[in-house]
Structure prediction request, 402 residues.
Amino acid sequence: MGMVETLRSVIRFRPIELDPVARRLAKAADVSDLRKIAERRLPHGVFDYIDGAAEDERTVVANTEGYRTRTFRPRVLRDVSNIDPSTTLLGRRLPLPLVLGPTGFARIADPQGELAVARAAARAGLPFTLSTIGTRSIEEVAAVSDGPKWFQLYVFRDRGLTKELVERAKAAGYEALMLTVDTAVFGRRERDIRRGFTLPPKIGLDTIIDGAVHPGWTWAFVRSEPIVFANVAGRDVGDGTSAVALAEYVNTQLDASLSWKDLDWLRSVWDGPLVLKGIQTVADAELAAEAGVDAVSLSNHGGRQLDTAPATVDLIEPVVQAVGDRVEVICDGGVRRGSDVVKAVALGAKAVSVGRAHFYALGAGGERGVDHVLGLLDAGVRRTMALVGATSVDEITRDLLE
Ligand SMILES: Cc1cc2nc3c(=O)[nH]c(=O)nc-3n(C[C@H](O)[C@H](O)[C@H](O)COP(=O)(O)O)c2cc1C
Prediction:
């Protein structure tokens, strides 16, 4: 009798969740869980395109380790019953110091692609950055999102086309232009080379087998319209209608001659806030400030370009000391948890930007996956603020970190 009562007091069967996406997401406690789910659901080549980085992949590891190895100096008894993580970035109030950074080719993870990410970002009130090589166009994204939108620019050799993209972004209400400057040539992503990965994925014997063991992804992929570089669909730069190795595309179509003097040209076609993404030294941050940009994004492209480039979190303090009074500093790379966001802000960043966090989430659960990861990051920022004794971003100060 006693045993039955004991068992009855402890046994709790969870209600059975019939919705497979909800079931999957309920078990995703953090970004690394979403990564594992994405790895299980996506064909190997697709997962490696998202997860992989350049050469020995040291920088991508350094980015995340840079956060993990920093420790807090938490303060207590500070009345943290009300936490407000909102901040101002490029003149706009945001609920969190967080931007959804550009990730090309989102439809490879989910048929909705950038539309799903943009809608989730808008619901959270956070900026969504559309990549030049997005698989949904400037206008398609604007049609589904009235949230803050930024456009990430790659400068094509064809300046006329580049100018047109900037003008379209402006006309569609994008608030900021983010010029990526770390992609003069394409980084050597060796996982993609080993797999012969192209965009869109070529169908060969290996991909057929890969597709067969990932039926959910394959079924969604074959039922949706072909994946193309939607912003340049039908243009002679190539829109991905035929499979292309991204390295070949970048190296033949983008302008490797881009230099500081081209910023004047860009300013002549874009009069809104300008962010330089891919700054990796104090010296270049100084040049960016002199050039009058509004913000720099300290970024090594998530370790996908120059391997053994420095972890971005290590750049925050010196760059903020040098130019923080003139430009806003965003840190990009390695952010997996709310506590990482708090650390970046403690070091002086205005905000962080994420890439893989929302791409894994998209692969793990589509649009609801992105809602889920934004919820995790929001809760993580709030919890960390409470546990270190900061009630507002102004109170996230340097002394809260070792
Ligand atoms: C799959 C993937 C695609 C990306 N595509 C672009 C892109 O088109 N343009 C760009 O400026 N950065 C691109 N990035 C870099 C991200 O914007 C960002 O710098 C990087 O992902 C940050 O590191 P994290 O993934 O650790 O957050 C991409 C990153 C990934 C993972």
Remarks:
- Strands lie at 87-89, 92-94, 98-100, 128-131, 149-153, 176-180, 274-279, 295-298, 328-332, 351-354.
- The pocket of flavin mononucleotide is lined by residues 50, 63, 101-104, 131, 133, 152, 180, 277, 299, 301-302, 304, 332-335, 354-357, 359 (CB under 6 Å).
- The CA atoms of residues 329 and 349 lie 5 Å apart.
- The chain has a mean pLDDT of 95.
